[in-house]
Amino acid sequence: MKRNPGKRIVFSVGVILFLITVSxxxxxxxxxxxxxxxxxxxxxxxxxxxxxxxxxxxxxxxFILDVRTQEEYNDAHIKGANLIxxxxxxxxxxxxxxxxxxxxHCAKGKRSAKACExxxxxxxxxxxxxxxxxxxxxxxxxxxxxx
Length: 147
Known about the structure:
Blueprint: H1 5-31, E1 44-47, H2 49-58, E2 62-66, H3 70-75, E3 82-83, E4 101-105, H4 110-119, E5 126-130, H5 133-139
Parallel strand pairs: 1-5, 2-3, 2-4, 4-5
């Protein structure tokens, strides 16, 4: 039985073209995944305590979210801050307005960054993570409330 090298080349080229086509389709789907989706991708902006203060002073529609514990909140909190401890955040997302800018803070910025990641895909208008948290806020001399 003779082998036909021409058929083997044609077959190989066909396989290669098939793989390129499939790869292209998968890449196209990956690029356009989420288009037409009802959820909006919210960008998290990391801001300083100073920028947070300026935003609070300048904007009317700002929701301040404190994700610390009740004890930490009772010790001192930013005026107007809404407490939802990070452990309870997912169960209470409906308490956060989607049409306002949301400033998220904790003590140092770690929990608030995690909270922003949780909130990121929830259709919120804008998310701001306060780097350094309330500790930075207090160290810059901005006012806090104590019960």
